[in-house]
């Protein structure tokens, strides 16, 4: 999945308006409150015969315009807008102007501060609202009586509740979107690791076979042309087989999951399994290296992942035996019991040290074998055998938890 797809899904899950949409919405809210304020503030007196409002003048028009215009910044600077709005409207109330529906602006900015600002700013907004309400009440403002104070407190509490609910919902939505993005990133990394393991095993094994067979062919070219020809045929066969395997691995990268039928599964090479081990050992058999295979138990109904892991572990172990251990023989034993597959590859080689500059590169094979065992819930150990040589032992469960495979007594292992 591409980065643009991840971002689009994040934005779709998050559900927030784009900047242009937010400006249009804020402008609509400001327009509605402005019209309502003009329409509801024209009266010169209230229902209370003792309250006569101060006539509207240029100062009133300027302050109302300021209050309405500041609503365009209620998301980006919520606390600043709230402080200015409360100061202006408190001043209008104290001066005895008929503010009409203008106090509705205070509910909008209280909601916006709680919804978009930090918690510290939200507490500051609550303190400003409480201070202005207390000032109006105790200063006995002409347009602010006891009933207005109670109505303000209830309205502010409702705005705070709605803002808090929206803030919580937004944070949960953002957390869910981030979790999905992280899950997608983890899937991509896991797939990259899987492809890296497959390519490593295919290339390392193929080049090892080609190198060995090329050496055999060159050695027998003069004395036994037929045997040299057979070695060259094995090189050609191994090359074609490796190309098919690489095509199968890389086909998934070219597959577009949004285009049905874009991947022709009929052209893909089957995943190697235990049934392919005899051919693997035949390719590895030379005059200088003779592996053997011993199997115990039926292997007809193995899970695909387990059979593939067995094949790749044996493949890598034989490659290491020739490249790093200089082994002349290897005994591959595969046994199936009620719990799973027990695998052993014991070769006659030593634990040759690799040059320091090749240590990191040479360590990927051993890491890959352990990862393959762990993916199917199994375990693997590798190290010098007590009877001599080097041994790779793995247990791959068919179901349930893996049985632990104890580590060898020697901590040093052959680089793979």
Q: Would you tell me the overall average pLDDT? A: 77
| Structural class determined from secondary elements | alpha+beta
Task: Assign an overall shape.
Answer: rod-shaped
Low-confidence stretches: 9-16, 258-263, 352-362, 400-416
Helical segment count: 12
In whole angstroms, the N-to-C terminal distance is: 32 Å
Secondary structure: helix percent: 55-70%
Side by side, the strands of the main sheet go 1-2-3-5-4
How much β-strand is present in the residues? 5-15%
Overview features:
9% strand; 416 residues; 59% helix; disordered C terminus; alpha+beta; 2 domains; 5-stranded mixed sheet; Heat Shock Protein 90
Write the layout of secondary structure elements.
Blueprint: H1 3-14, H2 19-40, H3 58-70, H4 78-95, H5 104-116, H6 119-138, H7 146-220, H8 225-254, H9 277-284, E1 290-296, H10 304-323, E2 329-336, E3 340-347, H11 359-362, H12 364-375, E4 379-384, E5 390-397
Parallel strand pairs: 1-2
Antiparallel strand pairs: 2-3, 3-5, 4-5
Provide structural commentary.
α1 packs antiparallel against α7, α4 (78-95) packs antiparallel against α5 and α5 (104-116) runs antiparallel to α6. Helices cover 59% and strands 9% of the residues. The protein folds into two domains: 3-183, no CATH class; 273-416, Histidine kinase-like ATPase, C-terminal domain (Heat Shock Protein 90, 2-Layer Sandwich). It has helices spanning 3-14, 19-40, 58-70, 78-95, 104-116, 119-138, 146-220, 225-254, 277-284, 304-323, 359-362, 364-375; strands spanning 290-296, 329-336, 340-347, 379-384, 390-397. With 416 residues, it is α+β, with helices and mostly antiparallel strands. Strands 1-2-3-5-4 form a five-stranded mixed sheet, with helices on one face. The radius of gyration is 38 Å and the shape is rod-shaped. β1, α10 (304-323) and β2 form a beta-alpha-beta unit. 28% of the residues are buried.
């Amino acid at each position: 999945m591409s980065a643009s797809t991840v971002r689009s899904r994040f934005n779709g899950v998050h559900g927030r308006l784009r900047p242009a949409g937010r400006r249009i919405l804020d402008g609509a809210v400001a327009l509605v409150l402005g019209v309502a304020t003009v329409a509801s503030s024209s009266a010169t007196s209230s229902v209370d015969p003792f309250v006569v409002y101060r006539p509207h003048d240029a100062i009133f028009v300027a302050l109302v315009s300021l209050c309405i215009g500041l609503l365009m910044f209620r998301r980006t600077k919520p606390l600043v807008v709230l402080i200015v709005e409360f100061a202006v409207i408190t001043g209008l109330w104290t001066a005895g102007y008929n503010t009409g529906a203008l106090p509705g602006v205070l509910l909008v900015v209280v909601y916006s501060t709680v919804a978009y600002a930090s918690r510290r700013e939200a507490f500051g907004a609550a303190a400003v609202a409480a201070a202005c309400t207390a000032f109006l009440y105790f200063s006995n403002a002409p347009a602010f009586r006891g009933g207005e104070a109670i109505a303000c407190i209830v309205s502010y509490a409702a705005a705070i509740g709605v803002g808090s609910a929206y803030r919580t919902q937004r944070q949960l939505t953002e957390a869910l979107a981030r979790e999905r993005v992280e899950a997608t990133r983890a899937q991509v990394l896991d797939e990259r690791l899987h492809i890296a393991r497959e390519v490593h095993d295919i290339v390392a094994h193929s080049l090892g076979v080609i190198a060995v067979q090329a050496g055999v062919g060159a050695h027998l070219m003069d004395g036994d042309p037929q045997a040299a020809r057979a070695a060259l045929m094995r090189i050609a066969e191994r090359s074609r087989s490796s190309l098919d395997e690489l095509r199968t691995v890389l086909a998934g990268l070219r597959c577009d999951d949004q285009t049905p039928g874009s991947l022709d599964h009929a052209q893909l090479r089957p995943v190697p399994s235990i049934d392919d081990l005899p051919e693997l050992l035949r390719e590895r058999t030379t005059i200088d290296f003779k592996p053997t295979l011993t199997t115990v138990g039926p292997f007809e109904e193995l899970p695909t992942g387990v059979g593939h892991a067995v094949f790749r572990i044996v493949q890598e172990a034989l490659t290491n035996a020739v490249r790093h251990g200089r082994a002349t023989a290897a005994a591959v034993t595969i046994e199936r019991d009620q719990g799973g597959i027990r695998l052993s590859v014991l070769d006659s080689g030593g634990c040759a040290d690799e040059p320091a500059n090749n240590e990191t590169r040479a360590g990927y094979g051993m890491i890959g074998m352990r990862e393959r065992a762990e993916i199917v819930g199994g375990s693997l150990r590798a190290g010098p055998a007590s009877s001599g040589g080097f041994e790779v032992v793995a247990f791959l469960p068919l179901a349930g938890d893996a049985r632990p495979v104890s580590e060898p007594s020697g901590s040093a292992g052959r680089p793979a």
